Amino acid sequence: LKIALQGELTEAELNLLPRGFQSVGDVIIIKLHRKLLSRKNLIGQKCLEIYPSARSVYLNTGKIIGTYRTPERIQFLAGIDDPVVEHREHGVIYKFDITKLMFSKGNVNERKRIALLVQSGEIVVDMFAGIGYFSLPIAKLSKPKKVYSIEMNPTAYKFLLENIKINKLEGIIEPILGDSKNITVQLSRNGIEADRVIMGVFPAPKDF
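^ that's the sequence the OP posted. Answer follows.
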């Protein structure tokens, strides 16, 4: 990127360029120093030229906020403005909207590690399922009897339903829209006994 922008940015600006980026599906997500924000569209276009397999470049200028763990600010820069991606990982397809839902690529090994802990025939309760971060690889890579995937964010739940179908995991994953604190009590009263409970959020949800 630094080489591609030689002559178009000052030396000081070149030294502020990011050393890396996040790729989710065929979308590039970059973060920029505040002094580069006026050149963001140029930088986005250069990213597409360097990585022609990417269809879009977006700029992340915010944090993950709120109860629903929503990206604060994801802005389109270059390519095709379609924030819905299909990200593939460990044989699992995750479909979601990058402007509305978080996805931590840093947890790639943890998602597989947790999945492979599950034994054949186990019942799993995933208390903060999101789009299926842990539920999908558990159902795909292990042989659970049932995965109860609980999510209260309607947008995440919508993509959870889609992801179950895309990965052909109907009958294994049972999606439930609601607050984990209430749903787990209902499951218990209905005689469901979990062999494993996943609470994949930080900080540790002690109240649950």
